[in-house]
User: What shape does this take?
Amino acid sequence: MTKPGKTLEFKFERRIPAPPNEVFDAWLNPKIPGNPWHLADKFTLDPKVDGLFYWSAKGKGIYGRFTEMERPGRIQHTWVSPNTLGHESMVTLSFEKEGEDTLMTLVHSDLPDHELARGHEKGWNYFLDTMREQFADGSRLDQRRDGAHPREATKK
Amino acid sequence: MERLSDVLTAISHPTRRAIIAKLANGPARFLDVAEPFDTALNAVTKHLKLLERAGLIEREKRGREVLISLRGEPLGEVAGWVHEYERFWNSRLDQFEQYFKEKKKKEKKKQ
Assistant: This one.
């Protein structure tokens, strides 16, 4: 389905209502919700160039090494997980001042493309589960007539 | 991408999702598909056409009957469209953003 060696890249942006140095520090603080180290069962974190990190959750381990650390503008580190099939993928974060806020950009690149196949598989299950949920609540087909779904529209 | 749009359109309607769910149990005849719905048969026909255009169903003639069966592959494409890492980072970044939003709210209250 896919050519070997092809990689994927995902980009995310968020506008955070705080100055870049605060956002930068929060991203590296495991106590703050949302960063990768938060809620890990176990972790080590040495946020400097050539420093290593490791965290595990639900028996799955993620490893990496920091390749760039420029407070408050930029962090880059590798990301190795079962989903990257042991390959080093790359996570690049940038924090740009925008008025009183910070425009935070996260790019996850060099993800092996065959992972997409796994995504398919998972997505498939997700889909089927959602479908199952929708139809397992007893409302089934009789309540799903054309033009009679206001309840369903607000349910999910 | 056009195919993805067709599939998303196809699954955007509760009746069509119900049809998919029914066909997930195995192929069915047109009247069996239409039977649970309190709607005109030609409305069901329209729904089936949309599903067919999206590649989600197939019709097969067996003797005098036409059997309709589900083809799952396009649903897999839709699901694969949202990659695991998209889900992971979006949920993390949402939490992160939320943390700062709440922090700001609290700070405003104090002032």
Observations:
- Residues 2-83 of chain B form a domain with the Arc Repressor Mutant, subunit A fold (CATH 1.10.10.10).
- DSSP finds six helices and three strands in chain B.
- The first helix of chain B runs from residue 2 to 10.
- The mean pLDDT of chain B is 86.
